[in-house]
Amino acid sequence: MMEKMSEETIEEVRVLEAQIEQLQAEVEDLQQQQQDNHKDISFNFRGHMQDAMSYICGQKHGAEKEKVLSGLKEEVEEMEEDLKLQTRMNGISLKSCTKTLKKSEKKLVQQLCVSGVCSDLVFQMEFLLSAVKDEQLKKTISDLNVVIDASDLQPFSSFLSGVEESRDLLLFFRTLRTFSDRCKDRLRTFQHFQEKYPSVVSLPAGSGSEVMTLNHPELPGCVLILHWSVEVCREGGVTPKMELLTKIPEKALKLFPSQAVGGAAEAFQSLLRVLGPEAAIEAVIMAVSLSPDT
Length: 294
Hints:
Blueprint: H1 2-44, H2 47-56, H3 65-90, E1 92-103, E2 107-118, E3 121-133, E4 137-149, H4 157-166, H5 169-196, E5 201-202, E6 211-215, E7 223-232, E8 238-247, H6 250-255, H7 258-262, H8 264-275, H9 277-289
Helix pairs in contact: 2-3, 8-9
Coiled coil: 6-89
Protein name: Centromere protein P isoform X2
GO biological process, one term: CENP-A containing chromatin assembly
């Protein structure tokens, strides 16, 4: 009987020892998580945010906790309002997710995936953000990859390659906004003239396309084609480019001097330089329609 009780006691002791070891391992994991949290606080936060996070994580104690947290709440609300204002001003809405790849006392490496929208342009980017804490906190970007969801990427191909090499995010966002603004200018102009001269102006591929056609109702087959593209150079410069093309049937060409037809493109470029885009386009429309009220 005593031997049986002794065996049961030994078994219970073993079970308790195993549970104690498991609890010790869990405590070590929690302590490691706490240390990681402290590192994240020192790396990623400054000022009121760092103080508040220190209270929340138990690094600091005292009567100032409620005051600090209240101040942090106000600061976050102000930042949210600033973010909304910035989104309205620059037209870019961003979402992001972060994954920590490497962490030590002096270095933090994170992989960031950012998606966003600028007008009708949807884009995604991935890059590594390395933060090294020495005398000052230094952050660097590497392995940048940018993808734009657009039907025609020709204007961006060279520019995106340059951005990925230079890792200049500010240049990317600034150029994207400028490109979007120039496309909006074209859209508004096309819609304006289509509404004002519906019998002459047509937009075969829609108001968001690069092409507007001018066709006089009494001259079927004789078409002037305005091609308005927005080009982006490798350095981020955004340049609207307009060309006037002619589509004249062979029979009509015999009735008009070839020089007059061929000079339409050059004449339009002269109008652009003197009058600007909208006035130059309207001058051509009026010439085609032969009446400002057509």
